[in-house]
Design a protein that fits this description.
The chain is α+β, with helices and mostly antiparallel strands. It is 27% helix and 25% strand. The chain contains 19 helices and 43 strands. A hairpin with a 2-residue loop joins β30 and β31. It is globular. The structure holds beta-D-glucopyranose (BGC) and 1-deoxynojirimycin. The site of 1-deoxynojirimycin has 9 residues, from α8.
Length: 814
């Protein structure tokens, strides 16, 4: 079954039936105001922080799912029948339905009873509001008298409290209504200086702001009393559940279209100017009214929409590829880059799977997200690096997460994830390679957000390395701490208490359990830091290389199992991910990370490990995390064995680390396999098995059920995953091999031999390189020559000249 198709020309995914296997969502906003929106207009909005500044409500895990949203109702006043033009919530059969998810906007169009409605939802750049531009057309032969009702349900700001603290919440709700604008001002009377508003460009016949009045007793959003009777109640919320709804009467001649604009927005007033007149309890609307007036004007809304489109043209134009594979092209050119923006903005906080109240920005996650984002808006990447490093401890360890609103480390989650510090080095390295902006290393950055503790960013990187060196275990491998990249491999946890958090409960001091994965990551990071140090202090570079070499030896001595790399040592000093284990004999992470760090490239061990991955872990839907899956709960391994076999970290296809193996394959020169592995998890290539895959075909998912699950091939947890950045980085920099280096672009493709070539256009440090790669001898890897603007470049490095805005590059493989 097909649920839609790609429209590459318009950079849209077009969904042609509303009952997709799961809600297929999109994001609105890419700066401070955000929303998620499904193909049936479900979803919610928030300002900066999905937990602390939630504007509207959404019902996670509802039946039916995807409930709560930006809902409109149309009512035929002649007959009293009504429906939802976005299908939900009434789910009235529509004669036509189409949802176009685009870059930063979603348009839902339908036709029901010969009334067409098309609503485009988007957030203008630089504003804290969303526009719903609704156009209704009468396709009948005779005039139509219609009612259009809008509706949203306000969240009382803190989404966690909103969903749990009813003894208080049922008594705090407050609104104001002025000039047909509904202002939501719960808690504004006390410590908040922000409010939300819901405005509409037409003069409404009525409004509602009290949910239970609008819906009527014991009714739901699928048949609100106000809509059914065709008339609002003009209810003014006080306590209970404040909502916003307008009633607009539309009389349309045959063929006539009318446009109504709705605005949902967030606004802040200075603390000493909250009320107008001062001393009253009335909202000061002086600065918000001009914003509302501006965007209720259709011309300004249209101009804002065009600006948004141009913004994305610019961002995507930075890297465009034309390869023989259409699936890869559309992911690189459109969707994967777009997904990288979402992960950069949201980290893992707000999606259909992440409730927005669970997590802030992850230290390791956000650093990895930079790999796929840094080329788009380097200035924001820079700011993120500085924010992240300010949550580092003086020891070099780091708060595992921080809240985006406060930018402070999250005490509840704490620290002790021993891989964390190294991702900062990789994030900074990616930034330096993209921009050449070495000044970032001298930026003074606090430790633990403590004023007065500032040290140059470079010092933070140093401490990332010493953190590991000061925490080595019995084999000389890094101690694992609470967990490494695999949050579910909890070797010090020993949790036997239901409901206990695996990641934050530590029952053992952790002086024994070691991670071969961190060892590999350490080698990679230490080599990277050595390359950075080489530009400043060659002796220090030698020191990092020596430490990397020492760790490499330790990995050979204690981390090689004969046919693959061991994963870890447990609290008893026994290997995890070894042939001696009954379950979990081989893990993906240590294979990918050790080879990416260059280990085993010269003695065949890398190739051998990759053969083992192919033999034991690869499936047609992607590479599973480990084998054999854990059939029961193992106290000494933790959360990984809490999942039924085939799901998540317990032998699921954890897409995030498939690219590590793909990079490793390119490093050993196997372009056919690298591309094949990439295609197995590429959502566009999986569109044809949509009923099995079930998640959105335009974004990567975190997980695809592994071969031990009855649902092998079913994707879950789409959108917010490190898979976004890693697949983007891997395809553009390792398969296409147009790779950023400290001094320029390195040209090193590794492709299927049958590819005759490809073209890439890359804007790099202000200069555009139009690169044509030719593969006349049908090789997978190897570059014979690189010619830049007619001149052969022996070191095959594309260096920006600072003089010439455009370069033509011809690369001959062979
Ligand atoms: C998930 C992991 C995730 C961790 C931390 C676990 O339940 O399986 O993928 O990293 O939670 O949020
Ligand atoms: C998802 C988490 O966000 C990430 O930090 C972790 O590395 C993976 N799960 C694997 O457990």
């Amino acid at each position: 079954m097909r649920y839609g198709h790609f429209d590459d020309q318009h950079r849209e995914y077009v969904i042609t039936r509303p009952d997709t296997p799961l809600p297929w969502i999109n994001y609105l906003g890419c700066e401070a105001y955000f929303g998620i929106i499904s193909n049936t207009a479900g979803g919610y909005s928030f300002y900066r922080d999905a937990r602390l500044r939630r504007l509207t409500r959404y019902r996670y895990n509802n039946a039916p799912f995807d409930f709560g949203g930006r809902y409109l109702y149309l009512r035929d006043n002649a007959t009293g029948t009504f429906w939802s033009p976005s299908w939900q919530p009434t789910r009235t059969p529509l004669d036509q339905y189409q949802c176009r998810h685009g870059l930063g906007y979603t348009t839902i169009a339908s036709n029901c009873k010969k009334v067409e409605a098309e609503t485009c939802y988007f957030v203008p750049l630089g504003e804290n509001l969303e526009i719903w531009r609704c156009r209704v057309t009468n396709r009948r032969q005779k005039p139509a008298k219609l009612s259009l009702f809008s509706s949203i349900e306000f969240c009382l700001w803190d989404a966690q409290d909103d969903a749990t603290n009813f003894q208080r919440n049922f008594s705090t709700g407050q609104v104001e209504i002025e000039d047909a604008v509904i202002y939501h001002k719960t808690e504004y009377r006390e410590r908040r200086n922000h409010f939300a508003y819901f405005a509409c460009s037409a003069k409404p016949a009525g409004f509602d702001t009290q949910r239970d009045t609008f819906l009527g007793p014991y009714r739901s959003w699928d048949n609100p009393a106000a809509v059914e009777r065709g008339k609002s109640f003009n209810s003014v919320a006080h306590g209970w559940a404040p909502i916003g709804s307008h009633h607009i009467k539309l009389s349309l001649k045959p063929g006539e279209t009318k446009e109504v604009i709705f605005l949902l927005g967030y606004h802040e007033n200075p603390v000493d100017q909250k009320f107008d007149p001062p001393g009253s309890q009335t909202l000061n609307k002086k600065t918000v009214k001009p914003v509302i007036a501006k965007y209720l004007d259709g011309k300004n809304a249209e101009a804002a929409f065009q600006k948004l489109r141009e913004y994305w043209d610019g961002l995507l134009g930075i890297y465009q590829v034309n390869s023989p594979d259409p699936h890869a092209n559309r992911m690189v050119n459109i969707w994967n880059a777009y997904q990288c923006m979402a992960t950069f903005n949201m980290s893992r906080s707000a999606s259909f799977y992440e409730s927005g109240i669970g997590r802030g920005l992850g230290f390791r996650d956000s650093n990895q997200d930079l790999l796929g984002f840094v080329h788009m808006v380097p200035a924001r990447a820079r700011e993120r690096i500085l924010d992240l490093s300010a949550t580092q401890f003086k020891t070099g360890g780091a708060f595992h997460q921080y809240q985006p609103l406060t930018k402070r480390g999250n005490n509840d989650i704490g620290s002790g994830f021993n891989d964390d510090p190294h991702w900062l080095i990789l994030g900074v390295a990616a930034y330096l390679k993209e921009t050449g902006d070495w000044s970032i290393l001298d930026e003074p950055v606090q430790f633990e957000n403590e004023p007065g503790s500032e040290q140059p960013l470079y010092e933070h990187l140093r401490r990332s390395i010493s953190y590991t060196l000061e925490r080595l275990g019995p084999h000389g491998l890094p101690l694992i701490g609470r967990a490494d990249w695999n949050d579910c491999l909890n070797l010090n946890c020993f949790s036997d208490t239901p409901g206990q958090s695996f990641q934050t409960t530590t029952n053992k001091e952790g002086k024994v359990a070691e991670s071969v994965f961190i060892a590999g990551l350490f080698v990679l990071a230490a080599k990277e830091l050595a390359a950075i140090a080489a530009m400043r202090n060659p002796d220090e570079a030698k020191h990092y290389l020596a430490e990397a070499a020492k760790m490499e030896k330790t990995i050979y001595d204690h981390g090689w199992d004969g046919e693959w790399f061991v994963r870890a040592y447990d609290d008893f000093g026994r290997p995890v991910g070894s042939k001696v284990c009954d379950e979990g004999k081989i893990f993906i992470e240590s294979q990918g990370m050790c080879i990416m760090a260059g280990i085993g490239l010269n003695d065949g061990k890398a190739k051998q490990a990759l053969e083992s991955v192919n033999k034991h872990l690869a499936t047609r839907h992607g590479i599973v995390l480990q084998q054999p899956a854990f059939s029961k709960y193992h106290l000494h391994l933790g959360e990984i064995s809490s999942y039924p076999p085939g799901y998540k970290e317990n032998a699921g296809i954890f897409c995030h680390n498939n690219p590590w193996i793909i990079i490793a394959e390119t490093m050993v020169g196997n372009g056919r396999r690298a591309f094949d592995y990439y295609t197995r998890i590429n959502p566009s290539a999986r569109e044809k098995i949509g009923d099995l895959h079930r998640c959105e075909p335009y974004v990567f998912a975190q997980m695809i059920a592994g071969k031990d699950a009855p649902t092998h091939g079913e994707a879950k947890n789409s959108w917010l995953t490190g898979t976004a950045a890693w697949t983007y980085y891997t395809f553009t920099q390792w398969i296409l091999g147009i790779r950023t280096g400290y001094e320029g672009l390195i040209i090193d493709p590794c492709i299927p031999a049958k590819w005759a070539g490809f073209k890439v256009s890359r804007l790099y440090r202000g200069e555009r390189f139009d690169i044509e790669v030719r593969n006349p001898n049908a090789v997978m890897k190897g570059v014979r020559r690189v010619v830049v603007d007619g001149v052969e470049v022996p070191d095959r490095l594309l260096r920006p000249t600072g003089k010439q805005p455009h370069h033509s590059v011809v690369v001959e493989m062979g």
